[in-house]
Amino acid sequence: MSFNTVDRFESTIADFYGAPYAVATDCCTHALELCLRMNPPKQKVTVPTHTYISVPFTLEKLGIDWGWTDRVWYDYYYLGGTNIIDGAVHFKQLGYQDNSFMCLSFQFKKPLGLGRGGAILCTHWDDYVKLKKMVYDGRMGDKPWAEQNIDSMGYHYYMTPETAQAGLDKLPIVAAQDWPQWSYANYPDLSNMAVFHGK
Question: How many domains does the chain have?
Fold first, then answer.
């Protein structure tokens, strides 16, 4: 099995969601991180009080100015002030939002549960190439890294070929089923947690 399997998975996921491109990652949190690193926000970012805890943790990790919003959301939401979408619970054919960086999760509780994994859906080829290099330690996957003149920072957040193959095998099965809608109501109010006191 080779990384061509990952390329096939990316193409299949992009087609399913109706996005021009998809970049597979090892998880949705890292997908969000890569988008924030590639496009550092120029203004304060807002995050719903009801979401997964790794989202505000990632903003803290990157030193990004952020705050809470009491936004009610269903399926997905934009990180306020950006075109980055937390679509961790969004599983819908042709559900991509144009000109966004939509970050997906394939964690075991999600419809396409692969144990671990994620993806970034995007519109533009240049963004796809940049993100692909960031995922793969600054390199492209077409030849060994030691044979490349790496010119950009990478983060070792790639999806394994084995995970990608599991996704290719499972997608037709889960796509044929009905899945309950996820929303803000599936999450606790993070602003009440001690770790975020003072935010």
Answer: 1
